[in-house]
Design brief:
The structure holds two protein chains of two kinds. Chain A contains ten helices and seven strands. By secondary structure, chain A is of the alpha/beta class. Chain A has a single domain, classed as Rossmann fold (3-Layer(aba) Sandwich), CATH 3.40.50.970. In chain A, α2 crosses α8. The mean pLDDT of chain A is 93. By secondary structure, chain B is of the alpha/beta class. Chain B has a seven-stranded mixed β-sheet, sandwiched between helices. Chain B is globular and about 70 Å long. Classes of the chains: A alpha/beta, B alpha/beta.
């Protein structure tokens, strides 16, 4: 049904802007697209007002390509750099109040389930480190404890980028930023551990310089959130402005940070493994077949 | 840990049979949702004007519960705060019985108001209730609902909000709600509570309104006291929310999203940005104006007037102050004073034209209130300025949990009529009438 609104009414094709026609004819709606095909289809997010070299924008693009049903996805965000790009995508976006994204997503996903039953309507929260770990912290944690069925993605640039470079809870200890004139005095918050304690069914950390991996974790997180429970992805999406990373060194920085504190990690609950395997044919969670020698041969 | 935990029996220290209803037990035969499933949908017109009613003696919280039972509510989000808690836990009972489809206890009011915003965006009918500090804690969210054009009904069981912390009745929080852009009703009693909530859903979801409705009452006086409520049969309910009907599309990925929710042009600093935000605000308040006709249709008007024509003085009140005022009118009659009463039911939109018409020839207006700041007196004075020469006494006022002795109101009527100086109302709260330079000077000194 939702695909109808991205189609043209008869006779209107030639009057529509080229951007729109490209979206209908070459967009991802109703098709399976992959990051490996980037450049061969129209992305739901192309034009945006983000800074040159912004790793967050690359991550958001990859994430949106990875959405399993972009035509039935609603994103929820809050104040921060990310929403400047997310709001430009051809996907409905809720821009609510400060730090209320996980509360809004709780009501939204429950309401959509009442209206559409088993038909997937994927709710995906994308907010920054400040929005998720600071001002939205309470609603984020409680939505996880309640096992709300939607995905939370933290765009972690380790700073309040949109307001001009202030310390956040996800900033590393010692970093000198605005509002931390003597350097941050406490550790980077361990939201990954908190997500596990709060009962998330899927928790992953990624950096954007491995598009296939980003695609893989987003897909799993969104699918698991349909039925099993809350899922959380924490992505390092550097702020090259506030951390003065030269534009051509942004990916190099991501690699360095990956080796330092952002190693790829993935936690999948047993229930989520079973769900992905049985419902979506994932093979990676099947128990390893025993070596032939171990199987007693039938006489 | 091998033994399964036994279901805990809820202790019931207060012995209250109403608020401690356990979730319905399923004996395997009777469907706990059976009665809810049998409910029949009727039109709002039939529900409000034609359906036969029977009278019950119940509390305000129970009246709210019975209104929700008949309102076809999809999602209710609860968080306890005195004196509202009983209301939302009774709505929880309705969830157990299947009358409300989805329900949970939120983390606190910021989260609750956010969830109501999310639920309303998904296209379902939403209800919540809070009080005093909860209202102010949730205010960022509440104040954003009208701008997001989110239909919903929220109930405010007013109480003290300011320090020192107290739980007593005081309706100061209404002053904050008046400037949100939402529709605001003020219930006098249990019957109003019941009627205003149900009408609230119908009005909130009208296409040319598409706004949240706040139903306020004075905590404890209405929520915890019993009164007679005439109610329709519990086997009927309002039609469900039709998600496509709103002025702004819901976010269900079935419709092209509203432009304002996609782009953030209003955040840029240029003339167009300012202009977009300005016209959006104008449209919110224009929608408040357009709700007048539905308030007339479903609630019988924004105010009620009793004995105003030819009266020596008129008392204008809202909420519990109306009940006290009605008794004051009776006492005045015994003293040979002919006093009228105007009960304001809708504060937003405010019955400006009605008051101008009613108060044109009135000499004295007394506005008793359950708060310190006198928000209603200011509303009344602003509305009738230039249309009435009445002297307006902004008082008596009680606050912080005080009750309002009827004699206080009678005193103001008497002193107002005789010109005797009031001992209870400050000169600065007396407005209108013949200008007295001393009073003006006092007013100027005290602002």
């Amino acid at each position: 049904m939702s695909l109808d609104y991205v189609k043209f009414s008869n006779g209107f094709e030639k009057f529509m802007p080229k951007e729109y026609r490209d979206m209908v004819e070459h967009g991802p709606f109703g098709k399976k697209v992959s990051v490996s095909q980037m450049g061969s289809f129209k992305e739901v997010l192309e034009e945006h007002p983000m800074c040159a070299g912004c790793a967050m924008t690359l991550f958001i693009r990859l994430a949106m390509i990875a959405f399993p049903n972009p035509e039935d996805t609603i994103t929820v965000g809050t104040a921060g750099c990310g929403r400047l790009a997310i709001s430009q995508a051809a996907i409905p976006f809720v821009y609510g109040n400060y730090g209320d994204q996980n509360g809004v997503a709780s009501g939204l996903s429950r309401g959509l389930r009442l209206r559409f039953g088993d038909k997937p309507k994927d709710v995906v929260v994308m907010a920054g480190d400040g929005g998720t770990a600071d001002i939205g912290f309470q609603q984020v944690l409680h939505s996880w404890f309640r096992k709300e069925r939607f995905t939370t993605i933290m765009l972690d640039n380790e700073v309040y980028g949109n307001t001009g470079g202030q310390e956040s809870g996800m900033t590393n200890r010692g970093a000198v930023l605005k509002m931390a004139p003597l350097g941050k005095k406490f550790e980077k918050m361990d939201m990954v551990q908190m997500a596990k304690v709060a009962g998330c069914a899927y928790v992953a950390t990624v950096v954007p310089n491995n598009p296939r991996r980003v695609e893989s974790v987003i897909k799993k997180a969104v699918l698991i959130a349909r039925e099993v429970g809350s899922t959380y992805i924490q992505a390092y999406t550097s702020c090259n402005i506030e951390y003065a990373i030269p534009t051509d060194k942004v990916m190099e920085d991501a690699k360095t940070v990956e080796n330092d504190r952002y190693a790829f990690s993935e936690y999948v609950s047993d229930e989520a493994k079973q769900y992905l395997t049985e419902r979506y044919g994932y093979k990676e969670f099947l128990s390893k077949p025993a070596t032939p020698a171990a199987i007693p041969s039938k006489a | 840990m091998s033994e399964a935990l036994e279901a805990q029996q809820k202790t019931n220290p207060q012995g209250d049979p109403i608020t401690s209803v356990a979730a319905p037990k399923s004996d395997g035969k009777k469907d706990p949702h059976a009665d809810a499933k049998r409910q029949k949908i009727v039109t709002p017109e039939y529900m409000f004007h034609e359906a036969p009613r029977t009278k019950e003696f119940i509390t305000g919280s129970e009246a709210a519960k019975e209104a929700i039972r008949r309102s076809n509510v999809d999602l209710a989000v609860a968080y306890p705060i005195t004196p509202q808690s009983e209301t939302m836990q009774l709505v929880g009972v309705l969830y157990g019985e299947g009358y409300v489809k989805e329900y949970y206890r939120g983390e606190e009011e910021v989260g609750v108001m956010a969830a109501i915003a999310g639920g309303s965006r998904s296209g379902v009918r939403c209800f919540t209730a809070t009080a005093g500090p909860g209202t102010l804690r949730g205010m960022e969210g509440i104040a954003s609902w009208p701008g997001h054009r989110l239909p919903a009904v929220a109930m405010f069981t007013c109480r003290v909000v300011n320090a020192p912390l107290a739980i007593q009745p005081d309706n100061i929080e209404v002053a904050y709600l008046l400037n949100c852009g939402m529709i605001v009703f003020h219930a006098e009693n249990q019957q109003d509570m019941f009627d205003f909530i149900m009408a609230g859903f119908a009005i909130s979801e009208k296409n040319d309104v598409t706004l949240p409705v706040g139903v306020c009452c004075d905590g404890f006086f209405v929520t915890h006291a019993r009164g007679y409520v005439r109610m329709q049969d519990r086997g009927i309910k309002l039609p469900p929310r039709e998600a496509w009907r709103g002025a702004v599309p819901v976010l269900d990925a079935e419709n092209p999203p509203a432009r304002l929710s996609r782009d953030a042009p209003v955040q840029k600093s240029n003339f167009m940005a300012y202009n977009i935000h300005a016209v959006w605000q104008q449209e919110v308040w224009a929608a408040v104006e357009r709700s007048r006709k539905y308030i007339s249709k479903y609630m019988g008007g924004m105010l009620t007037a009793e004995n105003v024509e030819g009266a020596d003085a008129v008392i204008i009140a809202s909420g519990s102050a109306c009940a006290q005022s009605r008794e004051a009118v009776r006492l005045c009659k015994e003293k040979g004073l002919n006093v009228g009463l105007i009960k304001v039911r809708s504060l937003r939109p405010f019955p400006t034209q009605e008051l101008r018409q009613l108060c044109g020839k009135v000499k004295l207006i007394v506005v008793p209130e359950f708060n310190y700041v006198g928000w209603l007196a200011k509303e009344v004075a602003t509305a009738i300025y230039g249309y009435s020469k009445a002297k307006i006494i902004g008082g008596p006022r009680v606050y912080g949990g005080q009750s309002m002795p009827v004699e206080l109101i009678v005193d103001e009527v008497e002193s107002g009529l005789t010109g005797k100086k009031s001992t209870n109302v400050a000169l600065s709260s007396i407005m209108g009438g013949a200008v007295n330079p001393d009073e003006v000077a006092h007013f100027m000194r005290s602002i």
